[in-house]
Amino acid sequence: MITSLQVIFILIAAATLGAALMVVIARNLVHAALWLIAALFGIAVMYVLLDAGFLAVVQVVIYIGAIAILMIFALMLTRRAVREEGPRYHRGWGWAFLLALAFFAGLSSILAFWPGITTNLRDYLPSADPLKDLGTALVSPDAFVLPFELASVLLLAALVGAIYIAWERKEEVQ
Amino acid sequence: MIPLSWFLFFAAALFSIGLFGVLARRNAIAILMGIELMLNAVNVNLIAFWSYRTVHNIAAWVFAIIVFAVAAAEVAVGLALFIAVYRRRHTIAADEIDLLKW
């Protein structure tokens, strides 16, 4: 017996995996970036199906609104290389395909033999709003304030480093 | 109700697709796209386990948010590197950036 939620899951999963496949096989890289946006939307729907609506919003804002757009900008800045780059895969892409396939087979067999795989009924829903727990956990000293501050320092360092690396120095231009 | 295993198999398939993209693509930006797919698969796994097994422990959300931040940092630095490389060598094909190769 298949419920409507399961039908939604199957449709979204098929669409997301198809879009992800198009990301890795598309010849035109701008098309690949657009397929990436589609796949990220599918994953946002997955978060909604898992009762994590806030993460779905964060997914849309950060991944689609920032990261995917940044990638499209970078593609446009390196457009000549994208147009003239020749084949899209290395010579050894068959090995990569075999490795990815073997990895999926290994993961699937591990999952199939894991005893917890059958305990799948979620009989209780989140009691309170998990967003409130998240907010207090991120700033309380006996929870996650240190990883939170580390993440902000990491972001600052990464942005300063990115600006420094991509800076066009005058002596190089001449 | 959707079984937990469906989410796990979905995430495994997504991770494998991303792995193939990272290993096989020549363009460096396409490799970054593969990395994004892999990070998203990990996040789906984290949230699936949170939702089915440890729904009163918010650590999975914190971990997912840290993964978001790390992905943003990685993409910013990676794209800056590719733009700098493109400016000097006029290519971002991963098998032609071989200055460090012995």
SSE map:
The complex is a heterodimer of chains A (174) and B (102).
Chain A lengths: L3 H22 L3 H21 L3 H25 L1 H5 L9 H21 L16 H10 L5 H22 L3 H4 L1
Helix pairs in contact in A: 1-2, 2-3
Chain B lengths: L3 H21 L3 H25 L6 H31 L13
Kindly describe this structure.
Chain A has helices at 4-25, 29-49, 53-77, 79-83, 93-113, 130-139, 145-166, 170-173. With 174 residues, chain A is mainly alpha-helical. The mean pLDDT of chain A is 85. Chain B has 102 residues and is mainly α.
Biggest sheet of chain B: strands, sense, closure?
A: none
Q: Into which percent range does the helicity of residues of chain B fall?
A: over 70%
Distance between the termini of chain B: 55 Å
Q: Oligomer, anyone?
A: heterodimer
Structural class of chain A: mainly alpha
Q: Which geometry of chain B do the CA atoms define? A: elongated
State which percent range the strand residues of chain A make up: under 5%
**Alpha plus pi helix count of chain A:** 8
**Average of pLDDT of chain A:** 85
Q: How many E-type strands of chain B?
A: 0
Computed structural class of chain B: mainly alpha
- Estimate the global geometry of chain A from the Cα principal axes: globular
Largest interface: A-B, 95 and 75 residues
Give the uncertain stretches of chain B in residue-range form: none
H/E series of chain A? HHHHHHHH
Tell me what portion of residues of chain B adopts beta-strand conformation: under 5%
Number of helices of chain B: 3
